[in-house]
Design goal:
Length: about 270
């Protein structure tokens, strides 16, 4: 059994050391040991509520991206090779992110770690799932590897609907960073990925829309095409119903933040 003072010093070092990563779950390395890590943060009921609200919104939102992409890929009216490659990448990557969010939820339900001097740490996430599951991230496609067109009306509908969908995720990620109650460094880093990836994908989808040979502005998106928006809120910030626009954006009460807040919390390896 480890001496209480040693356990305390080890935990203090975990809290003080900020992760050196730019993003989480960077890649699967064949042959490496599948070691996972538990991330901890100072226990706070307010912080846990912020995390639970975030997971409750982002998980069904990601599930909506899966169903939208699968419906599009099954539609005979699809045409753009580039947009189809993007839809396949969305299915692969966001399905994996749902698994990571499930692990966050499980950690939030786990009992806290109680240390000397009244320090209480809460498990908040599990890192290393890429290696544990042998997950290979699908890279975002580009016009260098796939033809942009021909672009059909169904392509424009999917692109417009997914732009609305992605923008909601970006805004929710920004709202999470802006919340002073947040303590979960893993989710903060996950949001760096969400903001970066989905902003780039929005730009790509706008290129597809602009390549449509007809009048793209005349193609209206039925709000029912945008799945998983019901739970998109964080704290007092709620996402309104989407508007059908040529270059759609969502009006949101959350201020825009170009640089995410520095992540908090540490992690501990389990062998």
């Amino acid at each position: 059994m480890r001496h209480p003072r040693i356990a305390f010093l080890a935990a203090a070092a975990m809290i003080a050391a900020a992760p050196a990563f730019a993003a989480i779950e960077d890649g699967y390395q064949p042959g490496d040991a599948p070691i996972t890590s538990t991330w901890f943060a100072a226990r706070s009921e307010t912080a846990q509520k912020a995390d639970r609200d975030y997971v409750a919104g982002m998980m069904p939102h990601h599930a909506g991206a899966l169903s939208m992409s699968r419906e599009y890929l099954a539609d005979a009216g699809r045409s753009s090779p580039l947009l189809q490659a993007l839809a396949r990448a969305i299915v692969v990557n966001q399905e994996f992110e749902i698994g990571m969010l499930n692990q966050v939820s499980a950690n939030l339900d786990a009992p806290p770690l109680r240390l000397p001097f009244g320090i209480v740490l809460q498990p908040v996430a599990t890192e290393g799932m890429t290696q544990a599951q042998g997950f290979l991230r699908a890279p975002a496609p580009s016009s260098m590897g796939y033809a942009m067109g021909p672009v059909s009306e169904r392509d424009v509908l999917f692109a417009k609907a997914m732009i609305i969908h992605h923008q909601a995720a970006v805004e929710m990620a920004q709202a999470y960073h802006a919340d002073p109650a947040v303590r979960n460094g893993f989710l903060s880093l996950m949001n760096v990925d969400i903001i970066t990836d989905q902003t780039q994908e929005i730009a790509l989808m706008r290129q597809v829309v602009s390549a449509y040979p007809g009048d793209a502005s005349a193609i209206a998106v039925d709000p029912a095409m945008v799945h998983g928006m019901e739970g998109m809120s964080h704290g007092a910030h709620a996402t309104p119903a989407p508007a059908a626009e040529a270059a759609p954006t969502l009006q949101h009460a959350t201020p825009q933040h170009a640089a995410p807040a520095a992540p908090a919390g540490g992690h501990q390896h389990h062998h």
